[in-house]
């Protein structure tokens, strides 16, 4: 009896491994046949990338580009699974903030040899901030694909009414304009929302105030005067009723009916506001962020990498080189409204809209979040602290001392 | 021998993963470890010690307790009540109400979240609009730490009542008419019939609903994930969400596995208590 059970288990396992081996084989065959298949993972929707993949296929007969679109929400989980199984795409689109994590795990190929081969991948072609996101520990593991940054959306009519028709240019003007807007609007009116659920929001203001988040020696700066001052500045917007306390005020609706005169957001909001609030066409504009020491904004977006377990790294590099060229970049802007990382593409007429140009201007003064693997967790802790200070009523300095200690611990500093 | 297929499947898909998770919970596995197993090292009991020192985890345990204490009795009583009422008649009205009560159970949670998000919205929401009609002040349904917990319970309650009601309805249909007829001959009133026949004979259904609801609420996850992400101030963070955040957002697999084992043990203990407390089945 016992022997028989053993036999059944063995044969079952054998069966499984045969099936698994079979799958592996068929994969190899499809990749090494006459028609090469290049597996590409994109975040978002397929219809934004498929036209570009078609362009590539036309130029490179014999190559089939298989685009798989993954919703952003699932993308991180899916990439984790790919790393765990060491089986994934050839080319992968990476959110810029994920680069350190996956580079540290060795999931992304070193791009240096390919950059030498394909001039379109050269760093000087792209915005500085975007290039910074492709590096991990002095190694280039990706090529910039598209960029996004935050800029100021404002109602020209409302801001004009309080003396700032071109939007506030400095922190002081921002505060002054906010107070006047709320005083003029009355109850239920706010100046701008503070996106406390977005870790980059406080980071942007901190950079503007000359504060680093984590310095080059991996020392967090959260309890230093510049950062503390920043948090107190943002907190004052809550305390003085200039920003809504709850975070569920619908930004577009409030912008439309004038209960909120400004907000800071990314380029995707241009289309959203145009579609959802056509009534205020011509009464709003986009400009660069107000400055304290600088008017730094964040840079994000996505990069393209070769997955380390890819079986066709050379083909993958060729595809990425094509994606970095102007044609592909402009096409992607057309299909997705995502702004090109390639500087030369910005001279094209397609991007001459003044609102887009405002983002282009902001991009020249923007930087990515700290490129350390621990940043995701530190950013979460920073958001929690900000919430403790603004909603929970904690003392700013005490809470930020705690945050700094926690960040030190996460970074492994003794 | 004849149970071999079942045993193999169980081993392959249940027991082995549990053992692997248990092993992971004693390591410092993260994404780097996932890519190359040689980077994984043993952490001893550090994950378990740290997790009980983590204020967010302790908070999530407390929140989960609140969810269970309020949510479970509410769901069991309400779904039984609704089933009893719907069992009174068979006209189209009763039938359509069965559908109406069941509808939330089959609706996608993301769609539900969007709709309820607007109901709860502080500035444009329906609930605050209703309050304003009665001259009451607007509430921050999802921004106030205490209220947010209750708001999520209300949503989950609304969503889970339908499925449990169907189970009760099925059990009600299974009670033979002859018991009621006998009781009527003895002059029993409606209330007495309910008290001495219906509720005792629903014992098994009640037990089943209680145990599944209890386990469901201990694993409370989707509602806080889509509605509040555990905020404000971690007031709606559940244990399952805490585990998800650490495992999938922060890639701290060892830590998350330790958390899931704590959750696993709690569920086993609670289920065993349930079986122990359950009275002998009623027989007539």
UniProtKB/TrEMBL annotation, chain A:
Classification via InterPro entries: SBP (IPR006059)
Signal peptide, first to last residue: 1-20
Entry-linked Pfam families: SBP_bac_1
GO terms of molecular function: maltose binding
Gene3D superfamilies tied to this protein: Periplasmic binding protein-like II
Family membership: Belongs to the bacterial solute-binding protein 1 family.
GO CC term (a single one): ATP-binding cassette (ABC) transporter complex, substrate-binding subunit-containing
GO biological process, one term: maltodextrin transmembrane transport
Keyword Signal: yes
UniProt keyword terms in alphabetical order: Signal, Transport
SUPFAM superfamilies listed in its UniProt record: Periplasmic binding protein-like II
Lineage, highest ranks first: Bacteria, Bacillati, Bacillota, Bacilli, Bacillales
Protein name: ABC transporter substrate-binding protein
